[in-house]
Amino acid sequence: MQQPQQQKELDDRQSLRDLDGIYVDVDGIPPLAGKQGLSAERLQGDVESQLRRAGVEVLPMGHFRTGDPHLQIVVSISEVQGRTVASRVEVNFVQICFLRRNPTVTFNRARTWNANTTVSLGPEAQLADRIRRETARQVEQFIADYWQANR
User: Fold this and answer.
1) Model confidence over 48-98: pLDDT tens digits?
2) ∠ CA 53-59-61, rounded to 5°
3) DSSP string computed for 38-84
4) Partners of residue 24 on adjacent β-strands
5) Is the pLDDT of residue 99 over 90?
6) How far apart, in whole angstroms, are the C-alpha atoms of residue 71 and residue 44?
7) Are strands 102-114 and 119-123 parallel, antiparallel or unpaired?
8) pTM here?
């Protein structure tokens, strides 16, 4: 039996409750976006600034809190075809998890929340801007769910 979407979202948000800080981890940026000036460091800085403005405590890499909670940003793109390229951004909340039925089993990291992702298709020359906008949209979704769980 499939869980209704509204209940699933409520359950996912519960994994964001009582966090005492998170860090941001950006996987490698595809070379084409890098040629347009987008780097993992720049995207990480954008996300960290957005989180701080919203009142979410951001930790520097290497400062581990209970459960090692972090936002994982994954960017993937297609091959360029006729100066058009598809891109997909994933914003996931990842933390250390335990199995309730067997607490001695630890999953090093598990995704406990993720944003609604979309695939964007557009001109090659606008790829980096599209990635930044889509990342910001998904981080905004994280912020809303974070505050929903922590009111």
Assistant:
1) 999 999 999 998 766 666 678 889 999 999 999 999 999 999 999 998 877
2) 130
3) --HHHHHHHHHHHHHHTT--B--TT---TT--EEEEEEEE---BTTE
4) 71
5) no
6) 10
7) unpaired
8) 0.85
